[in-house]
């Protein structure tokens, strides 16, 4: 669950901190609706990635610090992939920053 919270925080902060979104193809497009749809897609991708990574690399991991670093790295990678997916989704809908 903490990974999902991290992902949502990253996506929300990226959307808030980013420059103004513009859609030259469709000037009357609904930015808020597209942001929400792309955030849902990014969250879905992150969940799938978490499921895929839940057992990856754990077999050779001894309990302790090495395992926690592995989990942290996977969380960061999942958040980065979700942010990238969000930007690709917005670009596919014609939005640019």
Look at the helices and sheets and give the structural class: mainly alpha
Please give the count of helices. Answer: 3
Count of individual domains: 1
Name the beta content range.
under 5%
How many strands, what sense, and barrel or not for the largest sheet? none
Q: Which outline best applies?
A: elongated
Number of strands: 0
The unreliable regions are none
Helix content: 55-70%
Distance between the termini: 30 Å
What is the alpha-carbon Rg in Å?
16 Å
Label this structure with key terms.
97 residues; mainly alpha
Please provide a written account of the structure.
- By secondary structure, the protein is mainly α.
- It has helices spanning 2-17, 31-53, 65-92.
- It has one domain (2-54, 61-92).
- The longest helix is centred in the last third of the chain and has 28 residues, at 65-92.
- The protein is elongated and about 50 Å long.
- The two termini are 30 Å apart.
Produce a short descriptive summary:
This protein has 97 residues and is mainly α. The protein has helices at residues 2-17, 31-53, 65-92.
Write the layout of secondary structure elements.
Elements: H1 2-17, H2 31-53, H3 65-92
Helix pairs in contact: 1-2, 1-3, 2-3
């Amino acid at each position: 669950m903490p990974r999902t919270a991290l992902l949502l925080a990253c996506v929300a902060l990226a959307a808030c901190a980013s420059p103004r979104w513009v859609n030259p193809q469709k000037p009357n497009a609904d930015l808020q609706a597209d942001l929400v749809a792309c955030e849902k897609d990014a969250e879905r991708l992150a969940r799938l990635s978490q499921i895929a990574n839940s057992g990856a690399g754990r077999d050779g991991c001894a309990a302790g610090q090495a395992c926690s670093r592995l989990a942290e790295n996977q969380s960061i990678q999942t958040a980065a992939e979700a942010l990238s997916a969000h930007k690709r989704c917005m670009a596919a809908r014609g939005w640019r920053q």
